[in-house]
Every structure is written in C-alpha cells, then in structure tokens.
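Read as amino acids, tokens; as here:

___
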Amino acid sequence: MSRSRPPGMRPSAALMLMASVFAVTTGYGVVLPVLPFLLEHQLANPGAATVSRHTGMLSGAYMLALFVAAPLWGRLSDRIGRRLPLLLGLAGYVSALMMFTLSRELWLDYAARGLAGIFAAAVLPVALAYVGDTPPGAGRARAFAWLNTAALLGFLAGPLLGGWLATIGDPAQTDAHALRATALRAPFLVSALLGAFVWSASYLGLPKTRPHRSPRSVREGEGREAGAVPPMRLFALSFLVTLGLGSFEVALALRGRQVLGLGPADIALLFAVCMLLMIAVQGLIFTRDFAAIPARLTAPPTFAAMALGVLFLALAAKPVVVAILVGVIGAASGLLIPLIAYWVSLDAGAAQGVGQGKQIASASFGQALGSGAAGILAGVGAGLPFWVTGALLLVGSAIALTLADGARAYRAS
C-alpha cells in the first residue's frame, strides 16, 4: 500500500505551523541575553566561572531534553497524526515557561528548562514532518525555508525582547545588580502569554490529521526519494552545525559580558545581527540556480565560512568587527539548517516524523553539548570555546565533502 501525499498545504495550516515554531523559538531566545544577569542576581555575587558554568548548563539542559524527546514525539506523530502532539507540546511549553517565571531556586530553573525542552521537542519535529508530508521539490524546500524563517524570527525576537524587558528601570542598562528581579523574569512571562495565544489559535485553526499508514508499516527510509543523502552523514552535519551555534551563542553572551563589557541590550543586538543574516540567506533557497548546485559544493564552503567566523571571534575586540563576524556565522548557519532538514525529508520517505525527530535530536544534542561545553571552556579561557568550536566546524566541512556528486541543494521541480 503506497502512502498518499497531500498535494499541498492549506495556507492556514502553514501559518499555524509557522506561529507554533515562532512561539517556541522566541521562548528559547529570550533566555540568551538575560541568563548571565539572572544568575548573577539569583546566586548573590557568584564568580565569573560559576556564572559561565550554569549559563552553559541551563542552555544545555533545554537542548538535551530536546535530544531525548524529539524522536519519541516524531514517532508518535507518525502513529496518531500531527495535530495532537503539536498541541500537547505547545501547552506543555507554556507551562514550563510559567514555571521558570515563578522559580526562585536554581534547581527549579533546571527543571523548568528541561521540561521546556521536552515539550518543544513535540513542536519542532512535528512541524517539519507536517511539511515533509507534502510532495518533494522546490515547494517543499520553500516550506522548510519558511519554517526555518519563522524559527529565526523567533530567535531574533526573543533576544531583543529579553534584552529590552530586562533593562526596564535601569538607565545605564549595564549593571546587573540594579536590574529588578521582576524585570529579569518578565521576558519569560511574555513568551508564555504568546505561546498560550498561539495554542488557542492552533486549536481552532489547525486541521485534524490522520496517520497515512498503519503504524507497523511505517519504516524510516521506506519510499526514499530521489536525491536522498545517506542519513548518518546528515545527522552528523546537523549535530555539528548546531553544536557550533550553541557554543557560539553562549560564548558570545559571556564574552560580551565579561570581556567586551556589553549589557543585555548590546548582546541582544549582536544576536539580532546574526538572526537577520540567517533570514536574509533564505532567499537563496527559493532560486532555481541554487537548486542546480551539488550539495557537495554547497555545504563544505559554508561550513568553512562558519568555522572562520567563529575562530576570528576569539581575536575580535572592536564591536564592528564582532558584528561582521556574527553576520558571517548567521548567514552560513542560516543556509545549512533548512537544507539539511530538506535532505533528511528526502531520505525519510514514509516516516517523516521519525526522520525529522532524529534530525532534531541530532541538532539538539549538538546544541546542548555546544552550550554546556562553551560555558565550561569559557571558565578556563575566554577564547577557548571559539577555538574548539571552529576546529569542529572544519571537521564538518570535511564530512560535507563526502556527499554524493548527484545530490543537489534540492530538486527544482
């Protein structure tokens, strides 16, 4: 029995998927510029190494939970349909954000971030699997790019929102001890309210879905499509690009605070530069000319550019130079992430939920490891996270050279 594929996606469904991804990534993004200041306030004058360690580990806890839960949610969506897991994920994510908003203990912070990761794992792979159910080609590639754009807009809005709300009542916008505890927690409350609104809209507007096949008949790779790339290499590339991003995000926040003397709003602006460049390169994925470029020629130089951007950040001291390098990292990662998701969808065949769940798990594990390691390495030396991360991204460039000659960026038709 062949799996049926819908001819396309209803605009309202696509909008709900984008809104769901946006809400989840906004909730993650608000943490980035605020967390070092929140820990300084909550832990009562801790040392820089302690702040670095917990900043990395709290960020890593979220991504580690995503790593564990994403394949399970993806498999469940293959069995029972996409709608229910997505709604459960949104509801749980909102609850976890409220828990973090009300937390005043470090252990509760960790619990809240872990739960947020578990429920975010129901939203991200299921949304990608929903797109993976549509026919392959440029249309599916564009849909992946749009979902990635929604995610990037969330990552952009999150740091800006977090940096702005955290500095309310502090004219200097740099002294963490002058920031009120309520202002430091406000970004998470606002993100929770956004998530609740999106859940309500999705409950009313997202159509019910059914599994296309009997659960026992769904096997990852069954119905593998033309242009597929071996999955383990794709999962390795997904792991490495998000490891680079996770390490870069934490290391940049810590370097900005401890070395460059930047405040939350300044750090948020750097993250905004990164996200804007990530969004800008999405337009490349819409062009036929780009579709004709073999993956083996697309991915290696992009990984190399990201590696060089990270390596030179360890040496950069001028804000303009830092902003340029951040933009290079953003553009490179913004190109790689949706392309890897599309290549995974070609390989997954009938089991889109399982395939995208594993892809999200690989990405989440990479970001968790990158975030946690960056915090620890930054406690040893401010430049160490950048050197280690840059070297690993060069390994990604070498792996990308092994992609098949026939694999294209995506199929143009």
Notes: The mean pLDDT is 78. Residues 228 and 343 are 6 Å apart (CA to CA). The first helix runs from residue 11 to 29.
